[in-house]
Amino acid sequence: MATETITAEEALAVHGAEAAGPGMPQLDVSSFPNQIFWLLVTLGVIYFVLSRFALPRIGAVLAERAGTITNDIAAAEELRHRAREAETAYDKALADARAEANRIVAETKAQIQADLDTEIEKADAQIAAKTAESQAAIDEIRESAARNVSEVARDVAREIVAAFGADADAAKVDAAVDAKLGERA
Amino acid sequence: MATEAVALVEGEEPGGLVFHPFDQFEIKPLFGEIGDPVSWYTISNATFWMAMAALCVIGLLVIGTRGRAVIPSRVQSAAELVYGFVYKMVEDVTGKEGLKYFPWIMTLFLFILFSNYLGLLPLAFTPTSHIAVTAVLALGVFITVTVIGFVKNGMAFLGLFWMKEAPLFLRPVIAIIEVISYFVRPVSHSIRLAGNLVAGHAMIKVFAGFAAIAALSPLSVVAITAIYGLEVLVAGIQAYVFTILTCIYLKDALHPSH
């Protein structure tokens, strides 16, 4: 490597167009202190900034994000759990309501049946009473009709006897009519 | 490098092509005349581009995350992506004990990443193309890791070199090889990074030099575009490689038994 450097140096020396210097600036030892000094400064600055500000901040952000994601997942799990609970409660409420409705229907049906039975009984009693009453009225009418018949028969017999010119005893005529009616009855 | 040196020589031929593939790596004072001496405190182009890298890091990771939003903005999302990427790398390779060193590894990764990518801007200077910079980074890792190894494990750290699984008569040989490879680590660690970047950047300049010949210029543009694309990959991959090697060395220090 050294020989090559010399070659380059010689070349520069021969042609003299360039400012004096080695072939490879990398091997120019005179520039080393400058580079090393500024390198150390730069590394120091970068390290200081990274360790004091950048890395803790980014680490905190990443941790916070991880925490947020974990929390969100837990919250989602919780919500799903609650949704499932709500669904169960809803189903239960629905079943209860249905059972309640069935119970009410049955109760109402029984109530109506009972009411109906009482009403029917009452109506039957009324009907029986009315029937008995009517029977009585019919009997009375029949009786009065029979009495009227014998009266009319007596009157008619009396008139007929009178028409024949016989002076009939009213009592005899009545007795004869009654006897005739009694025969037929 | 030999060819590049030759190219440099040829570049000076009258009427020929002019190649200056290494001018871009020169350290120059940012203010004042070119050729002014560069002492250790001089604000140079290296200073400027390192500062730009630091500003980009601050912009992405501090200003980008100032919202601290649970639902992140785009910049915050990118910052979290980088954070998660390096954090996972450290955790996967070194285990939980290595997370203590996560800020240091993050610092290395971000500095190299932004230096590499900013160096791809036209006219920019790439601090990580200098062996002085990468050697300091690699030596820093090497020394830190070695110290951690001895502090955490005491003399048991030397078990890293003593393969208990190997047959007894092979162990000393393996131990010598292991020790050599251990001390070569910072060399390969630093030269890999600088070498990749120098090669790519120099190659772009060489192809750009060919553009002086009219017939070759379309080809030159295509080649520059292709190599630039490759360099975009290399910039990211080398930052990743440097970081993951750091993690592996750290793992060796924390768990020296194979």
From TrEMBL, chain A:
Keywords: ATP synthesis, Cell membrane, CF(0), Coiled coil, Hydrogen ion transport, Ion transport, Membrane, Transmembrane, Transmembrane helix, Transport. Belongs to the ATPase B chain family. The keyword Transmembrane applies. This is ATP synthase subunit b. The chain crosses the membrane at residues 36-55. GO terms for molecular function: proton-transporting ATP synthase activity, rotational mechanism; proton-transporting ATPase activity, rotational mechanism. Residues 76-140 form a coiled coil. NCBIfam families: PRK13454.1. Component of the F(0) channel, it forms part of the peripheral stalk, linking F(1) to F(0). The b'-subunit is a diverged and duplicated form of b found in plants and photosynthetic bacteria. F(1)F(0) ATP synthase produces ATP from ADP in the presence of a proton or sodium gradient. F-type ATPases consist of two structural domains, F(1) containing the extramembraneous catalytic core and F(0) containing the membrane proton channel, linked together by a central stalk and a peripheral stalk. During catalysis, ATP synthesis in the catalytic domain of F(1) is coupled via a rotary mechanism of the central stalk subunits to proton translocation. HAMAP family: ATP_synth_b_bprime. Its main location: membrane. The lineage of its organism: Bacteria, Pseudomonadati, Pseudomonadota, Alphaproteobacteria, Rhodobacterales. PANTHER family: ATP SYNTHASE SUBUNIT B, ATP SYNTHASE SUBUNIT B', CHLOROPLASTIC. It is found in: Cell membrane; Endomembrane system. F-type ATPases have 2 components, F(1) - the catalytic core - and F(0) - the membrane proton channel. F(1) has five subunits: alpha(3), beta(3), gamma(1), delta(1), epsilon(1). F(0) has three main subunits: a(1), b(2) and c(10-14). The alpha and beta chains form an alternating ring which encloses part of the gamma chain. F(1) is attached to F(0) by a central stalk formed by the gamma and epsilon chains, while a peripheral stalk is formed by the delta and b chains. Pfam families: ATP-synt_B (PF00430). It is a single-pass membrane protein. It comes from Limimaricola soesokkakensis.
From TrEMBL, chain B:
This is ATP synthase subunit a. Belongs to the ATPase A chain family. HAMAP family: ATP_synth_a_bact. Key component of the proton channel; it plays a direct role in the translocation of protons across the membrane. Pfam families: ATP-synt_A. The chain crosses the membrane at residues 46-64, 71-90, 102-125, 137-162, 168-185, 206-227, 233-250. It is a multi-pass membrane protein. The gene is atpB. PANTHER family: ATP SYNTHASE SUBUNIT A. The keyword Cell membrane applies. It comes from Limimaricola soesokkakensis.
